[in-house]
Amino acid sequence: MAQFPKFKLENQNGDIVTNEDLTGQTVIYFYPKDNTPGCTTQACDIRDNIEEFNALDVKVYGVSGDSKESHQKFIEKKDLNFDLLVDENNELAAEADVIGDKNVFGKKVRGIVRTTFIVDENNEILKRFDKVSPKKHVEQVLEFLKEG
C-alpha cells in the first residue's frame, strides 16, 4: 500500500501535528482556501457530522496553504470542531500530489485540487478521493469508513 507523506505542520493554535499523531484511521482533506464557498460547505458538513467521525474513532484534519491566523478566523466564524493544518508553502500538498491545474472563474490556475485521504496508524493510504465534491464529500467518506 502507498504511504502518506511524512509531515510536521502547525495547526490553528500553533501546536505541531505529525504522522505520529495519526492513531487509528484519520481523514486528511486538502482544500484550496479558507472562507471560500466550496471550502466552507465542505468544512461545515464535516462540523455537522463530527459525532459520526468520533463514533468511528476517526480524527479529521483539513489542510490548506492558509496561515494560522486565517485558519483561526475560519474556525471561529464557522464554529469548526476539528483542526486545520498550515501548509503555507504547499509542501505537503505537493508531496501528496494534490497540486494541479484547475479553472477558477474561467481562469486556469495551479493550486490545491480538493482531495481527501483516509490514512491508518501505519501511515498507509487506505483510500484517496480525487476531485472531491464539497457537497458529497462527507457522505462518501463516512460510507467508506463504515464499510471498512
List the helices and strands and how they pair.
Elements: E1 8-11, E2 16-18, E3 26-30, H1 37-48, H2 50-55, E4 59-64, H3 68-78, E5 83-86, H4 91-95, E6 99-104, E7 107-112, E8 115-119, E9 125-129, H5 137-147
Report on the architecture of this protein.
This protein is globular. The two termini are 16 Å apart. 30% of the residues lie in helices and 30% in strands. The protein is built from 5 helices and 9 strands. The strands form 2 sheets. A 7-stranded mixed beta sheet has the order 2-1-5-4-3-8-9. Strands 6-7 form a two-stranded antiparallel ribbon. The model has no long low-confidence stretch (mean pLDDT 94). By secondary structure, the chain is α+β, with helices and mostly antiparallel strands. The protein has one domain (8-147): Glutaredoxin. Its EC number is 1.11.1.24. Keywords: Antioxidant, Disulfide bond, Oxidoreductase, Peroxidase, Redox-active center. InterPro entries: AhpC/TSA, Peroxiredoxin_AhpC-typ, Peroxiredoxin_BCP/PrxQ, Thioredoxin-like_sf, Thioredoxin_domain.
Structure in a nutshell:
The protein is α+β, with helices and mostly antiparallel strands. It has a single domain, classed as 3-Layer(aba) Sandwich (Glutaredoxin).
Name the descriptors.
Glutaredoxin, two-stranded antiparallel ribbon, single chain, 148 residues, alpha+beta
Average pLDDT taken over every residue: 94
The third-level CATH topology is Glutaredoxin
Give Rg in angstroms: 14 Å
Helix and strand element order:
EEEHHEHEHEEEEH
- What is the overall silhouette? globular
Distance between the termini: 16 Å
- Class per helix and strand makeup: alpha+beta
Give the strand line-up of the largest sheet: 2-1-5-4-3-8-9
Low-confidence stretches: none
- Please count the beta strands (DSSP E, at least 2 residues each): 9
Regarding CATH, which class? Alpha Beta
Largest sheet properties? 7 strands, mixed
The CATH architecture classification is 3-Layer(aba) Sandwich
Tell me roughly what share of residues is in helical segments: 25-40%
- Beta strand %: 25-35%
Give the number of domains. Answer: 1
EC number: 1.11.1.24
Protein name: thioredoxin-dependent peroxiredoxin
Catalytic activity: a hydroperoxide + [thioredoxin]-dithiol = an alcohol + [thioredoxin]-disulfide + H2O
Subunit structure: Monomer.
